Amino acid sequence: MVGRAEPLRQRLASGIAVLALLAALVAAAFVALFTAAAQIEPRLLWEDVHLRRVVAFSFWQASLSTLLSVGLALPVARALSRRHEFPGREWLLKLLGLPLVVPTIVAVFGIVAVYGQSGLLNRVAGALGLPVGQYLYGLTGILIAHVFFNLPLAVRLLLPAWQSIPGETWRLAAQLGMESGHIVKHIEWPLLRQVVPQVSGLVFMLCFTSFAVVLTLGGGPAATTIEVAIYQALRYEFDLGQAGLLALLQLLFCALIVALIQLVGRTPHVEPLTGVRQLRPDLGGRGARAADYALVALAALSTLLPIIAVVMAGLTGPVLSVLGEWQTWRSLLLSLGIALCSASLAVAAAAAILVASRELRVNRYRDRSAEAMELGGSLILVVPPLVLGTGLFILLRPVVDVLAWAPVVVIGVNALMGMPYVIRLLGPPMTRITQRHDRLCASLGLGGWARFRIIEWPLLRAPIGLSLALCAALSTGDLGVIALFGSQQTTTLPLLLYQRLAAYRMDEAAVTALVLLLLCLALFVVIERSVAGRARA
Amino acid sequence: MDFHFDLTVASGDCTAVIGPSGAGKSTLLALIAGFELADAGRIRIGGLDVTHWPAAKRPVTTVFQEHNLFAHLDVAANVGLGIHPGLELDDEQRRMVERALDKVGLGGMAKRVPSTLSGGERQRVALARVLVRRRPVLLLDEPFAALGPALRREMLALVAELRHAGNLTTLLVSHHPNDALLAAENTAFVSDGRILAYGETRALLARTDCPELTAYLGGAQT
Q1: B42 at the A interface (CB within 8 A)?
Q2: Nearest CA in chain A to B129
Q3: Which pLDDT tens digit goes with each residue over B55-94?
C-alpha cells in the first residue's frame, strides 16, 4: 500500500487545484461585491419600498411556479408510470427532456407566439367567439414559462420514484386487495414524501434565480425579481453600489434556500429497477385510462406547441434577409465558439474533481470529503451566474475593458453552469469503474494513458458525449452573464434575439429564434453522436 | 416461452417445486396466485374454479424472496395489512396480530420497522401475515434463498409447524433439493415450462429415468 501512495496523491492534486481556483474566483467576486455595496447604508435598504416589492415578488413567483410545476408534474408522472403501453412512450420521455436544451429566450418567443395577444390561443379563442385577452406579460407569463421548463423536469425527476417500486410490491398489493386509496397511502405517498421536497427545492431555486424569463416576460416594476433588478442597476442605472448590494442579497437568499433544502433531507437513492414490469392492480377502467392519456397528452402538447410555434414563425419570417446579415453570422460564430470552449472546460474541470472525489470515496473511504468536493464543483447552484457575473464585472472594470472580456467571462461562467450536470452524469459511472477495475488495473500494471484508452474511454464515452452535448447546448442558449457584459462587438445569438425582441422587430426575431433553436439542437445531436459513438451503453 | 403446467396436489400437503432458473417455477406460482392469467386451461382450488378470479379474492397467500414488507410501516402494521388493506383494525384483530407475531417468534417486536430487522426476521413477519390472512393455500417463492443453511432449516421447521397447525396446502419453490427433503412430502420438477416429474420427494430425487432431472441434480444427492 505504501508504494501506491504517490500516484494516489497525484489523483487528488488536479481536483483540489480546480476547487481552489473556483474558491479564489468566488472569493474575489464576493470581495468586489462587498466593497461596492459598502458605499450604501444598509438601513436605507429596508426602507426602500421598491426593493421590498422586488424581494417579495421574487419569492411569490418562485413559490407559485414551484407549486404549479410540481403539482402538475405529480399526476403526469403517475399517469406515465401507470401506462407502460403508452404509444411512443420513449419519444414522450425524450420530448420532456427538450426544454432542458431549448434556449430560454427561444422558448419565451414560442410562448409569446402561443399565449400572447396575437398568439395561437387567442386566435383559436377569437374564432370560437370566446373573449380574447392580453394577459401574458407579468406574473401569468412568468408562471407559464416556468411551468414550461420545470414541469417536464419535475416529471423526469419524479418518474424514477415510481420505477423503483419492485414488482413484488404490486403483487402484494393485488393479493392483499389494496384499492387505489390504499396504494396511494401505503406505496406511493411514502416514496413521494422523500422525493417531492427535493424536487420542489430544486424547482424553487431555478425559478427564484430565473433571469431571461423575468427579463422578457416580466412587466415593469410590479413583476421584477432580484436577478433582473441587478441587471437593471448595472446596465441601465450604472449603480455599482446598488448592483453589488442586490447581488449580495440574492446570494444570501440562495444560500438560505440551499441550506433549507439540505435540511429537508439528502436526495434519497431511487434506482429505477430493470426487469419484468408488473402491472399495478389499480389500473381502473376506460375512464381512468382516458384520463391518464389526456393528462400526458396535455403535458406533451404544452411542451411541443411553443417549439412548433417557433419553427412556424421562423419559416414564415424573412429568412433570407436575416441570413444575409453579417450580424447574424457573427453572433452565431461567437455563440458556437463560446459553447465549444465552455463545454470542454466544464467536462475537464468536472472530471478533475471526480477523479479526486472517487479516489477519496472508493480507495480511502472518505465519503464526506468526496461529497464536499462534488458539492464544491456545483458551486454555481448557490452562487447564481448573474451574481458571480456582477462580482466579476465590478472586479474587472477598473483593470480591463470589461466589454472586450465578455467572451472569456461568459465561457467561464457557462462552464460553471454546466459542471453540476457533468458531475451528476459522469460521477456514478466513474465511481463504478474505480470500484470494479482499480485493483485489476493495478495488478496488471495498467495506468496512465493506456488505462484511459482501454478502460475509461470505452466505458465513459457515452456519458462524456452526453455531458459535452448538454453543456454546449446550455451555453449556446444562455442569456445571463452576456446581458451584463455584451456589447456591439460581443453579441451572442441569444443576446441578438433579445435585442430584436426588445426592439419589437418580431419578424427578424422569429428567424433568429429558429436559427438559435436549430444551432442548439444540431450542436447537441452532433456532439452526442460523434463523441458517444454508436455503441452507447 | 410457452408454459404448460399440469399438477394436482392433495389438500394439506407440502409440495416442493424445484428446477433450473427460468424453467417457470415462479410463473407456476404466479398463475395460482392470480398475478398472471392463463391463456387456456383451469386452475381449481378446493373444488372452486378460480381461473378468472382476481388475485385478492383467491384463497392464497404468497411469500416472496424479498420486498414482502412495506419499509415505512412497523411490524404490526405490516402483519395487519393481511387483515385489512386500509389497516382499519378492531381490538380483537389487533390481538390476532400479536398472537401471530408470538407464534413466529417475534413477540415484543411489534413496533420495530423493517430496516432494523434481520433477513430472517423479515420473513417471519411475512409468515405472521400468512397466519392472520387464514387462506388455505400458501405459496412460498424462494422465501429463504438469501438465508444461511442453519437459518434456512430453522425457517423451514417454522413453516412446517404453521402449515400443520393451519392445515395449509403449501407450494415451496426452492433451488435446494435439501429443502425439499426437509420440508416437503412431494416434489415437482419443473423444466422448460413443463412439470416433467412429480412424486414423493425421496423417490423423485432418486429417479434416474429423467435426463433433465439428472442433469439438474448433477449428482448432488449421491
Answers
A1: no
A2: A176
A3: 889 999 999 988 899 888 899 999 999 998 888 889 999 9
Cβ pair A177:B62 closer than 8 A = no
CA A111, A112, A117, A118 torsion-angle sign: negative
DSSP class per residue in A314-373? HHTS-HHHHHT-HHHHHHHHHHHHHHHHHHHHHHHHHHHHHHHHHIIIIIS--HHHHHHH
Cα atoms in the Cβ-side hemisphere of radius 13 Å centred on B139: 24
Under 8 Å CB pairs connecting chains A and B tally to 59
pLDDT mean values, one per 10 residues, chain A (537 residues): 52 88 91 85 74 91 96 92 80 88 92 84 80 78 93 90 86 88 88 88 92 86 88 86 88 90 68 61 79 89 92 89 87 93 95 88 80 86 89 88 86 92 89 80 76 84 91 92 85 91 87 93 91 64
Nearest chain B residue (CA) to A181: B86
Within 8 A of A187 by CB-CB distance, chain B residues are: 70
Nearest to B72 among A169, A181, A190 (CB): A190
CA distance A64 to A210: 14
CB under 8 Å to A260, separation ≥6 — which residues? A201
Q: What is the ipTM of this complex?
A: 0.83
The C-alpha R_g of chain B, in whole angstroms, comes to 18
- pLDDT (tens digit, 9 = 90+) per residue, B18-40? 999 889 999 999 999 988 888 99
- Which residues from B are below 8 Å from A190, CB to CB? 70-72
- Verify whether the Cβ–Cβ distance A166 to B71 is below 8 Å: no
Across the interface, whether the CB atoms of A169 and B85 are under 8 A apart is answered no
Which residue, among B162, B168, B156, has the nearest Cα to B104 in the 3D structure? Answer: B162
**How close is the nearest chain A Cα to the Cα of B10, in Å?**
23
Q: Look at residue A2 in the predicted model and tell me its pLDDT.
A: 37
Residue A269: predicted pLDDT: 57
Q: Do A168 and B35 touch (CB under 8 A)?
A: no
Q: Distances in Å between the alpha carbon of A357 and those of A20, A424, A464?
A: 14, 13, 17
Cell 472586479 -> residue:
A395
Inter-chain CB proximity A177 and B30 less than 8 Å: no
A120-159 b/e (C-beta count within 10 Å ≥ 16 → b): bbbeeeeeeeeebeeebbbbbbbbbbbbbbbbbbbbbbbb
